[in-house]
Amino acid sequence: MPNGSGGGRKKAPKAAHRLYAQVAWPTLGGLPLVDERRAAALERELIALCRRVGAEPLEVRVSSDRVQLLLRFGPGQPVSDLARRLKRASAASLRRWGWAARWGRGFAACTVGPGQVHRLLRRMRSEPRGTAPGEAGRDGPRAPGVPASRPARRGRERPGG
Q1: Can you say how many angstroms the Cα of residue 87 is from the centroid of all Cα atoms in its chain?
Q2: How high is the pLDDT of residue 129?
Q3: In what order do the strands lie in the sheet with 19-26?
Q4: What is the mean pLDDT of residues 64-89?
Q5: Average pLDDT for residues 117-134, to the nearest whole number?
Q6: Of 74, 24, 38, 23, nearest to 53 (Cα)?
């Protein structure tokens, strides 16, 4: 029997290497726009969206003024593309649900080494849902572990626009 006449195609082997990244983005203006009930619904939606775009969500946290995700993904997936797709799809979900919350401009994304994953998971899980961590003296949306010199916001919205 000639090669290739057996019918189906062989599946490509799964990549042995997996990458980890933390992704975060703010609400519009960094305002507390998401309450605890809506945060839980949005987390469930983000988990489904992650799987749809080919990323494994290790942790998803939505606080009142930001979204934080810890993802595992394959080496052929640029983390910036994943972040844009997740942000865009979650914004569409917000509109579909009729919620007033909107996402701010930009996102922060940083790769995470395998040795840092467990520490980051503990840190993210210790933060309450639907409330901003350190809300009393917060200094803007920032992913844990990202220094203050690298904020999640890539610019501020202009007044009136």
Answers
A1: 7
A2: 74
A3: 56-63, 66-73, 19-26, 108-112
A4: 93
A5: 80
A6: 74
Q: Could you tell me which CATH class the domain 19-130 is placed in?
A: alpha beta
Domain spans in the chain, listed from the N-terminal domain onward = 19-130
Return the structure tokens found at 103. 């996402």
- The pTM of this model reads 0.70
The two structure tokens encoding residue 55: 């990323």
Both tokens assigned to 109: 């994304």
Per-residue confidence band for 128, with pLDDT thresholds at 50, 70 and 90:
confident
The residue type of 100 is A
Given a cut of 90, is residue 82 above it in pLDDT?
yes
C-alpha angle 151/124/100, rounded to 5°?
A: 65
- Please give the residue that has the higher pLDDT: either 113 or 127: 113
Q: What average pLDDT does this structure show over 87-92? A: 94
Q: Which two tokens stand for residue 150?
A: 């690298």
* Residues pairing with 27 in the sheet: 103
Q: Which own/partner contact pairs does 54-62 have at CB distance under 8 Å and 24+ positions apart?
A: 54/82, 55/82, 55/86, 58/20, 58/117, 58/121, 59/120, 59/121, 59/124, 59/125, 61/124, 61/125, 61/127, 61/129, 62/34, 62/38, 62/129, 62/130
